[in-house]
């Protein structure tokens, strides 16, 4: 018998905001335990008596957030379990590997970050819908547990409790590089979530939809209310800003290559870097204007800051998270051990 370690955010923890258990597993530990990914998910499911969202994360890979920011780790598989069971059809799915080809780099210009910032890493984002029927928004479900948007939004399907866990926060949990914020998502995150980019096997959409500069929500001034009251666990703003700055330094332009989320716009404006205002669609402008990001505001004079100043003032510059609480990873995350994993 061998042991499989995992990181656990228990149900009702983090001030009561977790509607179900969330377990994150290091892909290296899966290999060290002599398991495959489905077996690892089942081992974790066996160890937790309740609804669980399970993500297997490879810290040697790379992924993109839904707005196109590259992060040096990736979810390799996601599962939903309840009382030790994983639904055989809808409870588990691996993420598709995106091959490094001239064709994909041409079609997805935000992937220029790949060679510049993370050369040689394997890229994973969302599942391949041709391999398996996947419900909308790349979700897996078992019993009361729902693991949505390729492992970044979890729900309890009886209480309808929901938690947003954008990927950079999960990267912080797995690497220990940074801290976490908890709170309510608020209007800016609610709008920003809709500012996706068009990708093959993307985190939210599996086909090329909603290019940079557009919105997937299309909700006008109601976009700010869609997710505003949902609790979230995210990376601290300094850490999040560091990944956006790395993308901007690689030549990414908000509204052209990466999404026109309030965070991306705020950092580019502070650094006096280009924003493709002409490429932002009218319906995306409606949503941005509802949270104060008008074209007039973005074109108005602002002091030019250095990268170091943006990082030091990230809590002031980056919008989002209502009533934030800054936490060390160990304050929220426990270490679990799945004894049931048998080699």
| Structural class estimated from helices and strands | alpha+beta
Question: For the report, how would you describe the main beta sheet?
Answer: 7 strands, mixed
Principal-axis shape equals globular
The mean pLDDT is 95
Number of helices: 14
Q: What is the straight-line distance between the termini?
A: 6 Å
The total of beta strands comes to 18
**Rg (C-alpha, Å):** 19 Å
Fraction in beta strands: 15-25%
Portion of residues within helices: 25-40%
Low-confidence stretches: none
Structure description:
The protein has 343 residues and is of the alpha+beta class. 29% of the residues lie in helices and 22% in strands. It has 14 helices and 18 strands. Strands 1, 2, 3, 6, 7, 8 and 18 form a seven-stranded mixed β-sheet that branches. Strands 11-12-13-14 form a four-stranded antiparallel β-sheet, with no helix packed on it. The radius of gyration is 19 Å and the shape is globular.
Key structural traits:
four-stranded antiparallel sheet; 18 strands; alpha+beta; globular; 343 residues
Note the topology.
Layout (H helix, E strand, L loop, with lengths): L3 E6 L11 E6 H6 L4 H11 L3 E8 L4 E2 L5 E2 L2 E9 L2 E2 L5 E3 L2 E2 L3 H6 L4 H6 L5 E2 L15 E3 L2 E4 L4 E4 L5 E3 L2 H9 L4 E5 L1 H7 L30 H4 L4 E5 L1 H13 L12 H10 L10 H8 L5 H5 L7 H6 L1 H4 L4 E6 L1 H4 L1 E5 L5
Parallel strand pairs: 2-3
Antiparallel strand pairs: 1-2, 1-18, 3-6, 4-5, 6-7, 6-8, 9-10, 11-12, 12-13, 13-14, 15-16, 15-17
